[in-house]
């Protein structure tokens, strides 16, 4: 057993060595008075990075969206992607789909999914103290999500314009509502497991879940509002002409007004997981990960990052933005909206590098990186030799971040910190599409590839 306590002698050596280097004193003077990460920002990168691109989609959505104090980036990203073609077809200057609408249905469906997970894991013999159930109970309902969860929500519940279901307090700041739901779900989890221990039948369990969901629905409806069964959307187009759609159900609105221009079932999610134990060309899923009972399961088609980059560029050149997931906070100069592996010179300030001391695979293995945020690619730059140089990002943090809500990401950053991208299947090679026909390899619930974008 290795034992290396910090004795007074060792502490004296550490202190003496620290102050023996005058650069440490200078760095200390700087970092004790300002943000230590921002203090490492590279002036050279700021001067050389420009928000100008060789290929850009015709119409970027307006206004810039803002998820505020919630983890709804995955919903904002898909609705930002969907609205570009929708706005063009309906001759609109500005438009937003209702993020609150999908958020409502995700909360309802996700709580029901959690209760079913509790029953299923109990029937599998998983102990409440075991790692799996403990993991599920840690966060019974969060705001984050994955691509296949989006497909579940839209194909089951449709979409509506934001004017038909506007934001609420708990949409923009969800932590308090979530605390109510989490506490109730844990209470209900115990009740269901107790019933199973006492030999309850499946019909009795179904009845109890339905009763529990009446309470859960009530809490969510009080906090978020309850969407109407039918909507009527009135609007003026660019030519100042009055238009009216409806009365129509949200699902009919998606099927009739949105799906012809953006069909979520035509899109596929490709991931890039370079860990040696997860080979490329294989299909993966994550145990207990989802949001809709009997809905689409979360599936990951694992491919090299170079393919994801190539297909993202092809989609943008064809005027279609791309939903993608990444580790957003690594090497980001937020004020200027720049993602670049050279944005910060940690070596100069601290005498050691940060983030890049591990490979992408090892960052996943050791918990230093994972997909935590979803955004949309809307432009790409390709040089004369055909090499992809950078992408433009539409984020959902409002106009105060980046260049009025937009960011730029280099291909080097993409290779290190992008983990998944969603493109139309028409761009995907046949052999890659064939991977979706495989029986998926099941990763444990706590695997980093099961992390949700928020």
From TrEMBL:
| Keywords from the named record | Cytoplasm, Hydrolase, Protease, Thiol protease
| Reactions performed catalytically | Inactivates bleomycin B2 (a cytotoxic glycometallopeptide) by hydrolysis of a carboxyamide bond of beta-aminoalanine, but also shows general aminopeptidase activity. The specificity varies somewhat with source, but amino acid arylamides of Met, Leu and Ala are preferred
- Which EC class does it fall in? hydrolase
Domain of life of the source = Eukaryota
Any one annotated GO CC term: cytoplasm
Localization annotation: Cytoplasm
**Annotated TM spans:** none
What is the active site of this protein? Answer: 73, 373, 395
Please indicate if the UniProt record lists Nucleus as a keyword.
no
- Which GO molecular-function terms appear in the entry? cysteine-type aminopeptidase activity; cysteine-type endopeptidase activity
Xref: CDD domains: Peptidase_C1B
EC numbers listed for it are 3.4.22.40
Q: A single GO BP annotation from the record?
A: proteolysis
The UniProt family comment states: Belongs to the peptidase C1 family.
Q: What is this protein called?
A: Bleomycin hydrolase
